[in-house]
Design brief:
Length: 155
C-alpha cells in the first residue's frame, strides 16, 4: 500500500504519514467492509482517497489547458514496462505535477473513467482528459531516450 501512496505523493515521509492515516481509517471502518470485492481493493481505495485528500490540502490541483491543442499519441504500456525499471517509472510518475499525477494514477492504475475522475477531483471531464494527455506527453518525453537506447542495444 505504500507504493500506492507513493504514486500520488512524491515525498516518502508524507506518503508514509498518509499510509498510517489510511490504516487507521481501515481499522476504524473494518466493520463496514461487506465482503463485496477484494479486501485488498477496499484497502487500496482508502489509500487512494487518503492520498487525494492529502494532496487537496497541500497543493492546488486544477490546471486548465486548451484540449484542442493536445496530441493523443503515446507510448504503449508494453514498451514502457519492458524497457524501464519499475523504480524508475515510479520516480517519473512522482515527478509529474500533482494534478497530472493524480489523473494519470486514477486513470491508469485505478481504472477510473474520465467522468469518475472529474467527479472525484471536482474538475471537468475535459480537464481530466487534458491532464492525462499532458502527463503522457511528459512521460513520453522522459522515457523516449531510454526506449531509443534500448532498441539500439537490442539491434
Amino acid at each position: 500500500m505504500l507504493l500506492v501512496c507513493l504514486r500520488y505523493i512524491k515525498e516518502r515521509g508524507n506518503a508514509e504519514d498518509v499510509l498510517q492515516e489510511g490504516f487507521i481509517n481501515v481499522f476504524e471502518k473494518l466493520g463496514q467492509f461487506k465482503g463485496e470485492g477484494s479486501f485488498e481493493g477496499w484497502i487500496r481505495r482508502i489509500m487512494v482517497n487518503k492520498s487525494i485528500e492529502f494532496l487537496r490540502k497541500s497543493s492546488p490541483l486544477h490546471r486548465f489547458v486548451d484540449i484542442e491543442d493536445k496530441d493523443d499519441q503515446f507510448i504503449s504500456a508494453e514498451d514502457i514496462m519492458s524497457n524501464i525499471a519499475s523504480k524508475d517509472l515510479l520516480r517519473l510518475i512522482q515527478d509529474l505535477p500533482p494534478a497530472y499525477r493524480m489523473v494519470f494514477n486514477l486513470y491508469v492504475f485505478e481504472g477510473l473513467k474520465h467522468k469518475e475522475i472529474a467527479e472525484q477531483l471536482g474538475i471537468s471531464e475535459g480537464t481530466s482528459k487534458s491532464n492525462l494527455s499532458d502527463a503522457r506527453a511528459i512521460l513520453k518525453k522522459k522515457i523516449r531516450p531510454n526506449l531509443v537506447l534500448s532498441e539500439m542495444q537490442n539491434a
